[in-house]
Amino acid sequence: AQSVSQHNHHVILSEAASLELGCNYSYGGTVNLFWYVQYPGQHLQLLLKYFSGDPLVKGIKGFEAEFIKSKFSFNLRKPSVQWSDTAEYFCAGSNTGKLIFGQGTTLQVKP
Amino acid sequence: DTAVSQTPKYLVTQMGNDKSIKCEQNLGHDTMYWYKQDSKKFLKIMFSYNNKELIINETVPNRFSPKSPDKAHLNLHINSLELGDSAVYFCASSQGTSSGNEQFFGPGTRLTVL
User: Fold this and answer.
1) What architecture is the B4-113 domain classified under in CATH?
2) CB contact under 8 A, B106 and A43
């Protein structure tokens, strides 16, 4: 069955620390992968997406993610987090138009 | 300009009642979705409509009935509400049904069933 899993459920970092959030997927065949962010009290917004081509994808607000096919992973990274990055982060996959989400990771950045 | 809007934002009701949530998008998209986010923040798709036709119907109780009067609107009616229906319901839209298309989400409707 298709699935997406996120290993880190709650991450606490200090400002300027580097971030890496794990995401693994289980899909047969081609898959499109996404990272969405949900700031407190707001709706989900797309950070970045991967379809094909360069496995290193750049998104908004300094985020990037790397698609590693051999590891079935699509980890999200940011070199230096800010307090304003405090939010819920969701990895999602799709090969049919139906988004399947991971469990989400709560990121708390301490000022 | 709000791209995907939902009403109401909060909905508190008693068990057994019937309620509706409305969703509208002004992006000109032809595909709309309903997702449910549970208390652990896990998001799961419920339904999807393309050009007013139902194309995705996950294993959702038939107390939930989506209706799409036109491409810009997708409403969700819930009959005989149960405690377990308490959640945040998100509407989303995209252009087309391709798996690579970005879905734009609404602000969510927090439903509390007492």
Assistant:
1) Sandwich (2.60)
2) yes
